[in-house]
Design goal:
Blueprint lengths: L1 H13 L2 E6 L4 E4 L5 H10 L4 E4 L8 E6 L2 E8 L2 E6 L4 H11 L8 H4 L5 H22 L4 E9 L5 E2 L1 H6 L6 E9 L3 H14 L9 H12 L24 H14 L14 E4 H16 L4 E11 L5 E11 L5 E7 L9 H14 L3 E6 L8 E4 L2 E7 L6 H12 L4
Parallel strand pairs: 1-6, 13-14, 14-16
Antiparallel strand pairs: 2-4, 3-4, 5-6, 5-10, 7-9, 8-9, 11-12, 12-13, 15-16
Helix pairs in contact: 3-10, 5-8, 5-9, 7-8, 7-9
Length: 409
């Protein structure tokens, strides 16, 4: 009996320590529960995601950690991780992701909303990506003709006569031709994403073999190099690569939420981090695009330059336009962090946005109702605070938000 208990303790001791944090809620742990080296790594690399207070009189000799509006997992060591839990219900978080990454038409989240954790959701979505990449590989990855300039001992394509005359002593001549190759960005995006997913430590042995097979199916065909999520946006699709639209939407999800500060070979484990402020903005934008009435259009992240020589530049979260006249109707700015009232810097910011666009309305959007809502005129501009609630049915919350937003228009 004693031997069995000893084995049980040994197994338990090998389990990784996972500290669970909720958004914006300070939590404390005894000094001995968090190795100092782990806490220092968290402080150095992830201070934007987690505020770290070292043991002191202020914290009664304990570690104090506060999640800063991010959710996901940070793997600080093989046996130590931080789980950042959302204040939004998991079902609603998944629906926000569905809208934000335009996945609703593919019905991905039927079943995924039953996941018990964000980690399980990540793994299932990774499995979807791996299976679809493997399926595309069986049918043949997309290829394109790319221009090539190289010296060859034989004729191929068009001879570059001027280059040849400048170096007559070289036996091999310079030729220009096109190569039909799968080593195009469409496929490099897939390869790099699968590489990041495989290193994330978010997938179990149930899914990891499929991810690795999908990566190996591309590894010998393309150059595997770092790519950012913006490579997945604004791409051109046609009959030969139309199915890549979905693949790139998934890749964008993974690349946007792979943690920062990591280069190839830097770590064996990559964090998975969702910036809830950015997700809230994307979700509101995509929900509005899907539900705005005819005659009203929306532009997201619109750049504006003001001042002498247009030296001051910024981006407005959302701008609504009258489709017939192209006149701006109102500017909207999302504010994910809960607040008791509209803060002066936020009001000043959205007023500047409205003035720069020459429109008479400016809206601050919060995920929870403010105890003291704001509705006032500043000069000729009406400033309002509205709520797109995330704690209930998102469709009903959106309809209520839209009705209030467009009242009088």
């Amino acid at each position: 009996m004693g031997q069995h208990q000893g084995e049980t303790r040994a197994v338990t001791a090998q389990r990784p320590t996972v500290l669970k944090l909720s958004e914006y809620a300070p939590q404390r742990w005894p000094r001995e529960e968090i190795p100092r080296a782990v806490a220092e790594e968290l402080y150095r690399s992830y201070s934007s995601q987690v505020a770290v207070e070292f043991p002191s009189l202020k914290t009664h000799g304990q570690w104090q950690l506060t999640a800063q509006g991010w959710v996901g997992y940070i793997h600080l060591a093989p046996d130590f991780a931080i789980a950042l839990r959302p204040k939004v219900q998991l079902g609603n978080l998944f629906r926000m992701l569905e809208y934000a990454y335009r996945l609703q038409s593919f019905e991905f989240l039927t079943g995924l909303t039953q996941c018990r954790s964000l980690r399980e959701f990540y793994e299932r979505l990774a499995h979807v990506l791996a299976r679809r990449v493997l399926d595309r590989g069986r049918r043949g990855f997309y290829r394109a003709y790319l221009p090539v300039n190289e010296r060859l001992p034989y004729a191929r394509g068009r001879l570059e006569a001027r280059r040849a005359l400048r170096t007559p002593w070289k036996v091999q001549l310079p030729w220009h031709y096109e190569r039909h190759t799968p080593n195009v960005e469409d496929n490099r995006i897939l390869a790099w994403t699968l590489f990041c997913v495989a290193r994330s430590a978010m997938c179990t042995e149930r899914v990891l073999p499929a991810v690795r097979r999908a990566y190996r199916s591309l590894q010998g065909l393309v150059t595997v190099a770092p790519l950012q999520s913006r490579a997945c946006v604004g791409r051109v699709y046609h009959r030969l690569n139309e199915d890549y639209r979905l693949l790139h939407a998934l890749c964008r999800f993974f690349l946007e939420h792979a943690g920062p500060h990591h280069d190839p070979g830097d770590r064996t484990m990559l964090p998975f981090l969702v910036n809830m402020e950015r997700l809230f903005e994307l979700f509101v934008a995509e929900w509005l695009k899907a539900h705005l009435p005819p005659g009203v259009t929306l532009r997201a992240q619109e750049p504006v330059s003001i001042g002498a020589g247009r030296s001051l530049q910024f981006r407005i979260d959302l701008v609504l336009y009258d489709e017939a006249t192209t006149a701006p109707l109102m500017v909207l700015d999302t504010k994910y962090k809960s607040a008791s009232d509209a803060r002066l810097p936020d009001v000043a910011q959205v007023v500047t946005y409205a003035q720069s666009k020459g429109c008479a309305e400016a809206i601050l959007i919060y995920p929870t109702p403010l105890p003291d809502p704001f509705d006032a005129m500043i000069g000729d501009i009406r400033i309002r605070t509205l709520t797109f609630a995330l704690d209930g049915d998102l469709e009903h919350a959106g309809e209520s938000f839209l009705q209030t937003l467009l009242a009088g228009h």
